[in-house]
Amino acid sequence: MTRLFLTTALTVGLALPAFAVQPAAGEKLAENQSYTFWLLDAIKTSDPHKNTDVEGSDIIRQLFEGLLNEDAKGAPIAGVATSFDVSDDKLTYTFHLRPEAKWSNGDPVTAGDFVYSWQRLANPDTASEYAWFMELMNVENATAVVKGEKKPEELGVKALDEHTLEVKLTTPTPYFPKMVTHASTFPVNQKVVEAEGDNWTQPGKLVGNGAYVLKSHDLGVQISMDKNPNYWDAANVVMEHIKGLTVNDNNVALTRFQAGELDRVQIPAGQYPRLEKEAPAEAISIPYSCTYAYLFNLRDNGPEALKDVRVRKALSYAMQRDVVVNQILQGGQKPAYNWTHWAIEGFKMPEIDYASFSQADRLEKAKALLAEAGYGPDKPLKVTLQYNTDENHKKIAVAAQQFFKQLGVQVELNNVEWKVHTDRLQSGDFQMARYAWCADYNEASTFLDYFRSTGMNYGKYSNAEFDKLMDESKASNDPNAQYTAAEKILAEDMPLIPIYQYAKVDMIRDDIKGLPTENVMNDWYAKDIYRIQK
Amino acid sequence: MFGYILRRLAVAIPTLLLLIVVSFLLMHAAPGGPFTQERALPPQVLANLNAKYGLDDPLWLQIVHYVWGIVAHFDFGPSFVYPDRSVNQIIAAGFPVTLTYGALSFAAAVIFGVSLGVTAAIRQNSWIDYLAVGTSIGAQVLPNFVMAPILVLIFTLWLGWLPGGGWGGPIYWIMPVIALSTSFMASIARITRSSMLEVLGSNHIRTARAKGLPERKVILRHALKPAMLPVISYLGPAFVTMITGSVVVDMYFSTGGIGRSFVDSALNRDYAVMMGITILVGALTILFSLVVDVLYAWVDPKIRY
Questions:
Q1: Cross-chain residue pair A221–B167, CB shorter than 8 Å
Q2: Distance from chain centroid for Cα A168
Q3: Which pLDDT score, from 0 to 100, does residue B243 have?
Q4: How far apart are CA A339 and CA A93, in angstroms?
Q5: How confident is the model at residue A150 (pLDDT cuts 50, 70, 90)?
Q6: CB contact under 8 A, B78 and A258
Q7: How far apart (Å, rounded) are the C-alpha atoms in residues A176 and A93?
């Protein structure tokens, strides 16, 4: 058994809290320790196993705590678990839970809670829309349990005793510790869930083990949380009250931020250059782990023209990413010539051939490739581009239409609402579709596994060499070797047009300290922030 | 009159049923469903979800179950998208909000609109008249989704007098009411003005003046009522437009009203909430048109049902 400690900080301070909030020298704490943040939409649920979106995860991360948390840079640190061991064959993880962890109703948090919760996530009766995460983690029997072929009790997770949790995987997954910071792996209190049924998440009933408890929730208006006195690290939590205000319009939200009603808000598209000048202490642009692309439909019954790799490469070369990033978005996003986000932890950006060409060069090559494929003025290429309703998607699509026109390609734009867009992606009813992929965990495979033949892969791209590389990467000591080769295959086969990699472009009040600016997952914990006196 | 009202209410029931059936069918015709997610659900999970919400029954059976639930238990079912709330809870939370600012907007639009229109008509071609007409045209080119962010800018950011959104006491009502009522007030003012001008030129007014009645009595007692007829006909469609306008108000002022829930439920394919609010709005529209028709009869004795 190899004993593995989490980070140096943890090894050094096993007796210390995992991540203590410490004002820097010269900073005095303000009287008012409350934080108000912006929500675009109503929160669908505070149940970790039924949540599906990022805003929901942000709330859940304050009310519950998983095995591990993330530090300011996104690396895993102690959460409920203080340390873990990995077996020599890398298939068994043993987590040691801290005995002082408590639920907000005073019950102790035990390994049994995690067993119940992980089984609940995978159980088809829960009908969780994130049950696939258990399969993604490669937990033993996860797939069979989710399908209903095996009982939830047969899931590869066991409580060896009150404070020791054993997880068995089917294949070595070196980034597994990074995956257990995900909200869907958080524990829930079995007694409360079974007693209250679907209503257990309402204020007054919800019991969590996080740093905050739910005080009130007006659907579509606001959600308020207060510091949880039973949290094991409550002594070090400075922020007392947190509140999420729903404002459905980004511009009105910005106005309210400027009026002092919000402490953090997203900057509406196109306003970053102005706000960066007017309020440099408050405007930030930090990398955010999503990539934006146009996906090609490569199914057998898909468009014939797009089956030719020269056509796909031509379209990708003709895309003027700099225009998109500098003229349309103007938020500090980076142009993308590859799939994995450049700021993912540990990922080494490979050298992609067409990334280093000049745009004029790329256009020349694109024209040549298209002509080679047999398209020209007498046989123009016609293709449809589908995108879901959004100002920016529209702008980028209209621009793309012009870029492709330079090749003589006629693009028909098709704007549909999100559910219809998703439905068509899943059923393969598209030619080129706007797409974005966000990392589920802070490691490159969350991106690259998408394009496996068995991956989510809505375009149904398939390359045996690619699949083999991804398989090898799991057992490799330095997976970057495989990842680089895999990205190069994507650049050769071009199953997508990568366009840009996201940035989080926000205004944050300058007296709020502790929000992560170097965590590409942007998983923030209110227990780590504090307000200083100005 | 009483018989008329009863007949109208009796017709309302098959109207509502037709509304339910048509909405149900249209809803299910749209691609995508409540459980269409980024990642396609595993078949077993999808089967469980469909079973839980009765989506695997044939459509006609779903409609029957649904109508029975409402008629027998007044239960509009669980929300498909918010697992810890029922439709009844969502409507109970949102409807009072919409009703409050909706009723206030209506009242404000009618009171100010009529006053402005009458004043403009009495002082025709004076500066008051030009001001009134000018204001009303100006207000009509400011739709509520333009007014709303401007109001927040002025009253929250620049003046700091009002909170930018949310719901609570009367201070939260002011901006939503202004945003929603302004264009209606403008229309009502113009309709009142032209209708009033027409009535003031009619024979019975000339007689009243000839009799020596004070001008105020002539206006308020003899001219106002007949002048109201076109305004009352306008109120019916205005009511419906206000319901849709409330979506914008909910969006910009985060009031938590049902307007936003309505749009959200359509985009999320939350069939239960969509149906619930459709029925509510349908029933209110039917009720309101009945009220308008009864008002006609009260204002104009020549109208008989």
A1: yes
A2: 25
A3: 83
A4: 30
A5: very high
A6: no
A7: 9
Helix B59-73 to helix B2-29 angle (10° resolution) is: 140
CA–CA gap between residue B50 and residue B45 (Å, rounded) = 9
- Residue A21: the pLDDT is 64
B33: closest CA among A419, A175, A326? A419
In B, minimum Cα distance to A246 occurs at B254
Taking contacts as CB-CB distances below 8 angstroms, the residues of chain A near B164 are 247, 252, 255-256, 259, 261
Structure tokens belonging to residue A165: 């949790």
DSSP letter at A200 equals: G
Tell if the CB–CB gap between A248 and B260 is shorter than 8 Å.
Answer: yes
Closest by Cα among A350, A321, A324 to A490: A350
User: Could you tell me the two tokens for A507?
Assistant: 């205004």
Q: Cα distance from A99 to chain B (closest Cα, Å)?
A: 31
More confident position, B73 or A366 = A366
pTM score, two decimals? 0.89
Contact A417 B267 (CB under 8 A): yes
Nearest CA-CA distance, residue A108 and chain B, Å:
25
Say what the pLDDT of residue A20 is.
58
Closest residue by Cα to residue A163 from A234, A230, A67, A89: A67
Q: Is the pLDDT of residue A341 over 60?
A: yes
Which candidate in A419, A420, A422, A424 is best for mutational testing of the B interface (most B CBs within 10 A)? A419
Q: Pick from A41, A286, A176: which is nearest to B267 by CA?
A: A41
Using CA coordinates, name the residue in chain B closest to A128. B45
Handedness of CA A12, A13, A14, A17 (dihedral sign): negative
C-beta separation of A145 from A152 below 8 A: yes
Please identify which residue in the block is written with the tokens 């109503």: A42
Cβ within 8 Å, pair B251-A249: yes
Sites in chain B below the pLDDT cut of 50? none
Which of A124, A255, A261 is the closest to B44 by Cβ?
Answer: A124
Whether residues B152 and A255 touch (CB distance < 8 A) is answered with: yes
CB contacts of B81 in chain A (<8 Å) are: 44
What pLDDT digit, counting tens, does each position of B218-240 carry? 888 888 888 999 999 898 888 88
Got the DSSP string for A383-446? Answer: EEEEEES-HHHHHHHHHHHHHHHTTT-EEEEEEE-HHHHHHHHHHT--SEEEEEEE-SSSSTHH
Q: Which of A196, A255, A418 is best to mutate for the B interface (most B CBs within 10 A)? A: A255
Mean per-residue pLDDT, A441-467: 94
Give the amino acid at A516.
P
What span, in angstroms and rounded, lies between the C-alpha atoms of A529 and A509? 12
Within chain B, what is the greatest distance between any pair of CA atoms?
85
Q: What angle do CA A130, A133, A134 make, to 5 degrees?
A: 115
